[in-house]
Amino acid sequence: MQNSVIKAWLDSSYLSGANQSYLEQLYENFLLHPAAVDASWHEIFKELSGTGVNPDQLHSKIREYCRCFAQNSARHTSLVNYSDINSKQMQVLQLITAFRLRGHQNATLDPLKLWQKAIVPDLHPAFHDLTEADFQKRFNVGSFAIGRTTMQLGELYGALKKTYCGVIGTEYMHLTNLDEQRLIQRHMESVVGQPSFSGEEKRRFLSELTAAEEIERYLGAKFPAAKRFSLEGGDALIPLLKEIVRYAGSNGTREIVLGMAHRGRLNVLVNVLGKKPQDLVDEFSAKYTGHLRAGDVKYHQGFSSDLLTEGGMVNVVMAFNPSHLEIVSPVIMGSVRARIDRLREGRSNMVLPITLHGDVAISGQGVVQETLNMSKARGYDVGGTVRIIINNQIGFTTSNRYDARSTQYCTDIGKMVEAPIFHVNADDPEAVVFVTRVALHFRNTFKRDVMIDLVCYRRHGHHEADKPSATQPLMYQKINKHPTPRTIYAARLEREGIITLADASEMIHVFRSALDCGDCVVQEWRQMKKRSLTAWSRYNHNHARDEGCPIQIDSKHLQALSQRISKVPHSVHLHPKVKKLYQNRASMAMGTKPFDWGGAETLAYATLLDEGIPVRLSGQDTIRGTFFHRHAVVYHQKNGSSYTPLDHVRKGQGSFHIWNSVLSEEAVLAFEYGYATASPRALVIWEAQFGDFANSAQVVIDQFISSGEAKWGQMCGLVMLLPHGYEGHGPEHSSARLERYLQLCSGRNMQVCIPSTPAQFYHMLRRQALKNMRRPLIVMSPKSLLRHPLAVSSLDELANGSFHLIISEVDDLNLPGVKRVVMCSGKVYYDLLNKRRKNRQKDVAILRVEQLYPFPVQAVREALIPYAHIQDFVWCQEEHKNQGAWYCSQHHFRQVISKGATLTYAGRPASATPAAGYISVHQIQQKNLVNDALNVN
After folding, report:
1. What is the pLDDT of residues 390-427, one digit of tens each?
2. What confidence tens digit (pLDDT) does each residue in 735-793 have?
3. CA 254 from centroid of its chain's CA atoms
4. Percent of the chain, pLDDT > 70?
5. For residue 447, is it within any domain?
6. Which residues form the signal peptide (predicted)?
């Protein structure tokens, strides 16, 4: 602001805060048509912009200057002088800005007309000192995109109301990118709120509304008492989704991944994805025998189909979704990101994510905020998601928005990521299709999230047996008298001469006949090719064979890989501690130092990358490692640039992606689950900062990770690394809640491991990636063992070993002299070993169970053969008695010990909290449990 021209500009008496909108509009005109701006303003704007500056940045600067004017307006209040400015012209431009900014508040969005429109003073010309006499005058309309530079005020006012206060309410002025604003302005203002469609298109929209209505009537008649979560009232969702498929196919999209909750799901399955009505009827009748799994209710089921569009074939996938409504959103994003990474198409539009939300759910559930927050983060960006809200204005039992949220719209949360929001009256299918096209154009152009708020109603209760009129009498009096969307639109087309009443009746007859036949009713549906199944075809779930051992790696090649990933270019100036860490890893590669945890872990990744297997690892502080142990990426200390050794294993290697996640567990873990389901060949890992942080993501663990295969046949090889171990850090940083995972285990649904050496960790990761089975792997990973002097492994153990389900005694004990066998898992083993060696005890053997589920019965029995004479067995754990493995696994322990032997518990007493908060109490408890296990008085 030191430039003399700018200073003089700021000091001008007419630059009061009231003129901000005028100045912004004037500047926009300058950017579009510089020559059309007065010479004096031209010079000021030219000086402000300089050369080679992005117009968006310039506009942001102008806004900043205008805010300065507003702040300093007090000193101009008594000096306002409009001698150099046409004040009426300025006020007209302010009126345009007011409609763009707040017109949605006066739009006719509610089909039931129950909404009380807000009083918005600045939408009235009088607010801007524009009188009836001015209505006949012509004014410059700036960038109002209707193809003219001037209009009579009366005509302009009418056009503004049609554009911004009709059946579409558009919120986009919160966008800071000028190009994004202009794109929406051009679309909205060029049609003046009245989009044009051909007669063929209109008949198609009516046909789609007919299908939406008739499937609900059909199911309601056949199964009147069954839950179906009807779409009735929001029927326009069907033409909306079908338009997305058409538009996407014509604009290069080849895959659509769709996530939605219950409302309208069955309708979408039949009328969009092409599920056979007969299959749905069989599910209602409990006749469906397509699988032998535990299964799930019909309105949680997913589906996949190929749909033919004018632009080519589009594969559409509807994800499985439990009743925890919004949790599917990050799952969808993860699945899409995996597809994008697999296609290596970067920011193309080949894959499109769509999520459907309820009005109360999107504003009420925290995972929505988490999902939006990570939508543009590097590790989670999917190029924008189309988010559709089925806004039935009532949610579950909420009577009005004042009980459901604290904002005017349920979509206000979208403003946190500057998503444009299109509110549309669902009784107008043409408006719905129009905003769908605009939304998709915006998403494809700017790779950003966009929201469509489909304002509708719910003709029945939450489900069909519900009686909503008991609590919503006025709303349901309106609904009972309100004609259906199909009826309204059919009458409209009849008035326009597009169809006759007989045509509308014939559409109903044709669709009902198709339903009665039971075959697919979607003309675009095509028999799916096998391409979508090939990614999973190599993975079998034969329980007898899923313990397969990966092929070992030649020690010289393994050493070469280790050396390769231990080298950092000399040009990278490392932090002293990181430099020391990499020097140690170089020594490990040379064989002069044993491998620690971080060295073995990164080497495991290197071996997989060398075999062309992709690796993805994410979590909070994961790149460095919470405990300063990983450093998979190193940073130049002088310029901040980064170097990733694992990107340099070999040419043509598998892709390596490691990300520090946003501060979220629920959304991020759900994202990684979705990623793993769509990328079976990749090793996908989510690491908690501390193991108990996964508590915030329990719904993902319960409803997807542990049960997805049993409910839906959804295979997944996701790895969860959960730092676990009692180090005296209090209740929140000790336990990863091992007991919760063991409680969820059944039918070999997942694996729970507690590796105790770097070699075990190395082989466990390789086993997960290389065996022909994909099930989740839950790992109680270490903290203090990352640098424990005994928790090390040799190069030979990595090269020639394998993952041991149980590790036998390591010390040379006189077997006849052994009187007790202690079984344990994890860090406590080293406490027991140190104490026993310190005491020089020879009568207690210690065995480590490295995999608690599936419990390795045969392997443990074989390990206990030398101790067949022992009658005294102890299970030792650090966790409290009501936690850890004791309650969930003791039946396995009793199954493998000698006949007639006793099994006792050594550990902390039962507790309501995971760990003591006082270090002194922790130390006493730790000492006691070790002494109890070793039978030390």
Report:
1. 999 987 766 577 788 889 999 999 999 999 999 999 99
2. 999 999 999 999 999 999 999 999 999 999 999 999 988 999 999 999 999 999 999 99
3. 20
4. 87
5. yes
6. none
Q: What's the structural domain count of the chain?
A: 5
Average pLDDT over residues 317-327: 87
Is there a contact between 227 and 380 (Cβ–Cβ < 8 Å)? Answer: no
Give pLDDT tens digits for 258-274: 999 888 999 999 999 99
741-754 burial, b at 16+ Cβ within 10 Å, e below that, comes to bbebbeeebbbbbb
In a domain, 37, yes or no: yes
Return the structure tokens found at 271.
């009328």
Q: Which domain holds residue 29?
A: 1-85
DSSP category for residue 528: P
3-state secondary structure 786-849: HCCCCCCECHHHHHHCCCCCEECCCCCCCHHHCCEEEEECCCHHHHHHHHHHHHCCCCEEEEEE
> How do residues 204-219 score in pLDDT, each as one tens digit?
999 999 999 999 999 9
Please report whether residue 574 resides in a domain. yes
Q: Looking at residue 659, what DSSP letter applies?
A: E
DSSP characters for 62-101?
HHHHHHHHHHTGGGGGGG---TTS-HHHHHHHHHHHHHHH
Across the chain, how many H-helices and E-strands are there?
33, 25
What are the pLDDT digits (tens) for 114-128?
888 888 999 999 999
Q: CATH number of the domain that 745 lies in?
A: 3.40.50.12470
Maximum alpha-carbon separation in the chain: 112
CA–chain centroid gap for 776, Å, is: 19
Q: Are 344 and 453 contained in the same domain?
A: yes
480/343 same-domain check: yes
Domain end marker among 784, 800, 816: 800
CA–chain centroid gap for 538, Å, is 27
Tell me the CA distances in angstroms from 899 to 822, 866, 869, one per residue in order: 16, 14, 10
Residue 544 lies in a domain: no
Tell me what pLDDT residue 1 has: 41
Q: Are residues 161 and 305 in the same domain?
A: no
Structure tokens at 166: 């009709």
786, 880: one domain = no
Percent of the residues in the chain that have a pLDDT greater than 90, as a whole number: 74
Secondary structure of 414-458 in HEC code, one letter for each residue: HHHHCCCEEEEECCCHHHHHHHHHHHHHHHHHHCCCEEEEEECCC
- Does position 12 have pLDDT exceeding 60, yes or no? no
DSSP string, 853-871: ES--HHHHHHHTGGGTT--
* Integer angstrom CA distances of residue 193 from 119, 314, 403, 430, 434: 21, 31, 32, 11, 10
The structure's pTM equals 0.89
470 and 351 fall within a common domain: yes
- Alpha-carbon distance of 3 to 7, in angstroms, equals 6
